[in-house]
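forwarding from the other thread:

> can someone predict this with zinc ion?

sure thing
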Amino acid sequence: MINQKQDWDVRTRSEACVKCTKPFSDQEEFLSRLFFGEEGYQREDICRACWEAVSAEPALSIWQSVFRLPPPPPPETLRKETAESLLRKLIEEDNAAHANTIYILAVMLERRRLLVERDVLVREDGVKLRVYEYRKTNETFVIRDPELKLAELEHVQEEVVLMLGGGGEQPASPAQEEPQVDANARE
Ligand SMILES: [Zn+2]
């Protein structure tokens, strides 16, 4: 059970198995597990061959992934703020005032199939945490679920659209690119 108040985190995938240190190869299946320790969330990626020996050990979450060789870095063009870059920035800032926005961005990315939900955890203080995996990089995103009511959703969505449009040179209508998080939230 998690007993520390850390609401968000991103953990990157290892390039090699933490047990035998053998580098993962492209398309190799591996297992990931998440712990909470002195330094916050800790993630371990383990190859199939090593898994048997540690499978009985307790962990917060365990899931299976496929290793993909990282794509070459995108050219340093004028990237506008996207749901993904904004999510990363807000997690980095770690400001509780952005809890709803962070969650809505994660939901947006999940609906676009960029994030996949791997687990839902309930902390000792009752806070619900969703564990997502970013498909392209296998990174783990731990996101606090603020358990928004429908009435709150629209307000948060407007805030998110504003943040996506307000940050750069993008002239108009970010809503065209950022689909509504939940059409049913509109009256
Ligand atoms: Zn191994």
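Residues 17, 19-20, 22, 46-47, 49-50 surround zinc ion (CB under 6 Å). thats all i got for now
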